[in-house]
Amino acid sequence: MTANPHYPELRLFLAGHWLPSGSGQYNELKDPASGRVIGHLPHASAADLDQALQGAELAFKSWRRTSAMDRGTILKRAAQLLRERLPGIATNLTLEQGKPLAEARIEVAAAADIFDWFAEEGRRAYGRIVPARTADVRYQVLREPVGPVAAFAPWNFPAVIPARKIAAALASGCTCIIKPAEETPATCLALAQALADAGLPAGALSVVTGDPAFISDYLLRSSVICKLTFTGSTQVGRQLGALAGQHILRSTLELGGHAPVLVFEDADLDHAVAVCVDNKFRNAGQVCISPTRFYVHERVHDAFVQRFVERASVLKVGPGLEPGVQMGPLANARRPIALQTLVEDALAHGAKALMGGHGMGGEGHFWQPTLLAHVPEDARVMHEEPFGPLAVTATFANLDQALAQANRLPFGLAAYAFTESIKTAHILASEVECGMLGINNMAINFAETPFGGVKHSGFGSEGGSEGLDGYLSSKLVSLS
Question: 221-249 burial, b for 16+ CB within 10 Å, e for fewer?
Answer without folding.
Answer: ebebbbbbbbbbebebbeebbebbeeeeb
